């Protein structure tokens, strides 16, 4: 398996993260699992490109200046700026290639569900990733979910229906529903309701009309 490559350097912790970010440098932390924890920094765009390929379920070979060999890691956590959406900080965790890891692999929904296309149904995705266990070398970027089998509103795709590489053990409950199609909501028929103002207006008109009638009858009697 080809791993994603990424270059990093040891970070001078005396420099504030804000200063690094202003120069498009991303601060990061590496957690050892048998190795020394490291404070790192890397080119912001280089990480973005690597993360687009690897996500959080593909091994990254992290080449750190001063280290003889690259470190095999997974992206553990990313902090984002809530206002701009830019990445602020990354945590990497070390993985040993001879030890199984527990992680989550994203689901990728492919195809078109006939119940959506032909029956105007609403696609309902219940989970977006699978919890798995395997050796790091068997991890994949995503697992496909073919939704073309959803032909009516009774059709459901369960975890047990997914095609998962044989070297990956799925931890998620096999009976759990992954995706289904819900019938379209019927538009409620709007029933016109007379406003209180309108009712009062009619009553007021009737009252005026009655008063005019009384006045005319009195004039006639004179």
List keywords for this structure.
6-stranded mixed β-barrel, alpha+beta, 222 residues
Spatial order of the strands forming the largest sheet: 1-3-2-6-5-4
- Total of helices: 4
| Structural class by sheet pairing and helices | alpha+beta
Terminal Cα span: 112 Å
Radius of gyration, whole Å: 32 Å
SSE order in H/E notation?
A: EHEEHEEEEHEEEEEEH
- Quote the average pLDDT: 87
What is the multimeric organization of the chains shown? single chain
Largest sheet: 6 strands, mixed, barrel
What amount of the residues lies in strands? 35-45%
Using DSSP, what is the number of strands?
Answer: 13
The stretches of 5 or more residues where confidence is low (pLDDT under 50) are none
Specify the helix fraction band.
Answer: 10-25%
Overall geometry comes to elongated
How is the secondary structure organized here?
Elements: E1 4-10, H1 17-21, E2 25-31, E3 38-43, H2 44-54, E4 60-64, E5 71-80, E6 87-94, E7 101-110, H3 114-117, E8 122-125, E9 129-134, E10 143-146, E11 156-158, E12 169-170, E13 177-182, H4 196-221
Parallel strand pairs: 1-4, 2-6, 7-10
Antiparallel strand pairs: 1-3, 2-3, 4-5, 5-6, 7-9, 8-13, 9-12, 11-13
